[in-house]
Amino acid sequence: MTTPALPLYRRTPLRRLAGVDRLAVAGGVLLGIVVLAALLAPWIAPYPEDGGSATHPLEALLPPGGDHWFGTDQVGRDVFSRVLFGARTSLFIAVAVLAVSGVAGVALGVVAGYAGGWARDVIMRVTDVFLAFPALLLSLALAVVLQPSVTTVIVAIAITWWPWYARLTASVAASVSTRGFVDSARCLGVPAPLIVLRHVLPNSLTPVLVQLSLDGGGVILTAAALSYLGLGAHEPTPEWGLMVQQGQSLFTTDWWVVTFPGLAILVTAFAFNVLGEGLRARLAR
Amino acid sequence: MPGYLIRRLGQALLVVAGVIVLTFAVMRLVPGDPAVAYAGPKATAAELADARRRFGLDDPLPVQLWNYVRDLLGGDWGTSLHTRRPVRDDLFQAFPASLELVGVALVVALVAGIPLGIAAARYKGRLPDLSVRLSSMLAVSVPVFWLALALQTVFASGLGWFPVAGEYDASLDRTSPLHLYTNITAVDALITGNWPILASTLSHLVLPALVIAAYPAGVVAQMTRAALIEESSREHARLERALGFGETAVLTRFSLRPALNPVLALIALVFAYSIVNGFLVEAVFNWPGLGRYAADSIRSLDTPAIAGVTLLVAVLYVVANLVVDLLQGVVDPRVRAR
Predict the structure, then answer these.
(1) Least CA distance to B247: which residue of chain A?
(2) In this predicted complex, what is the ipTM?
(3) Which residues of chain A make contact with B18, given a CB cutoff of 8 A?
(4) Which class is domain B94-291?
(5) Where would you find the membrane-spanning parts of this chain (chain A) (predicted)?
(6) Predicted pLDDT of residue B337
């Protein structure tokens, strides 16, 4: 095994393409399937009405079979259909949290990074305080304060999630701000807000975007945990964490009620992690 | 070093102050009147006013914050509304149980994660690497509460290899009562030579500790792999290879120690995360730790108790970070210079 200390050749486009991490591709494909399942749930679910509050007491707790691939739950709803609809809930939460916390974090971070000095110190210390609360912990406290619902989950997680992006953006923006083109813009008399928007911000985004894709899995796990604790989505919302909670006492007798929603969380979080990991490895090169 | 130490300590204190203010702010948002929760729904107006005065709810917010900080520093963390005991005493009992569980889990995670990371770095791009990367990503993607339920169902309820729930067999309290020193059951049993309780505790620990270990083991393996690959591409590794050292020796004899520094930093982060992740696992295995206390507190809207748990874990995180930073300063002189 040889390890050249310096790259001896320039990367050609072909080499770059060949270098795309196979794991990242696999993660992208897997995530694509989940997204498709979420988008098409009303059309591909065998029993679309089971995504809501429908009940079929006579068909309760049927094991997996031809009519019900994943079996039925305690009120007779098709678990497969509910898992498909659950993808909508989970992805919606993930996108909302990442969008809200991403925008807030990037905005604060880019200001801190460009301004430097005391503004950076103040923003970074506030960030440190929020970072001291593990996401699930502050979400727990907040979820008690607010009424349990999907919106609560989004708000609670977003509040604990933005500091990561603020910190990341601030460090990138600080190094971008020392570059020549920023100095030139400043010398030309471009007002500071414009410099930040036109020059610093676009050049600071890539690491944050990668981090966002890496964090999708974490948001989905946290959201599922909150719903599992009864602090998030509630009946009849099809939510994977809630489905696990409702079925947990039946695990020994009717394993499918708990197993499939749990697997759905695992697969989705895994897809996000694999994709993000691959993107990060590519960015690091 | 003194300058670095003081700067770092000052930063940590500032963050703790912020943590207290934030906890206070969150708790003031609680719906419903804490006085009602304490005095009960049938309380008369006079009783309510009395409770309100007792908790200082009539004072302006800055005064309340000041009183809150003063009480905290004086060791008064408030009275739990559901156990009716001082929150500090409750935490003093529940926290060691969580610490026991997470401590064992982190040891398992390090013992499993570091060798896996070394193996992955040694066979980079080949089958062992791919399988370690895949399994570590699975480990960080699995919902802990679901994994806990699955292991409990299969290995405890199903096969009967391990106990289903609890910290140790409660009937042992009669045959061989445990003297408490540290409140950490396994440690107390060990130092007092209480073998039945020690054995029972260890067998109760296996499943929940394994579940909590999954996430840290995954991140430790990933981090060890990445740090080793970077470290072994440095100049010193070229020299070692030129001197005829094999790839394994380059990794383990020369690159491992400098590469473990970021892993150490990671452990501080993961520690607080695992305590909170442990809440879910404690709920499944009915482990008498912080998680169960938090769950009970949430159910009864017990503001002082929730504030206590939140504050404890956040401060723990700050302290863990501080300790790791200082340790790194000791281990690696380059950190001090920064």
Answers:
(1) A1
(2) 0.83
(3) 125-126, 128-129, 132
(4) mainly alpha
(5) 23-45, 91-117, 129-162, 255-275
(6) 58
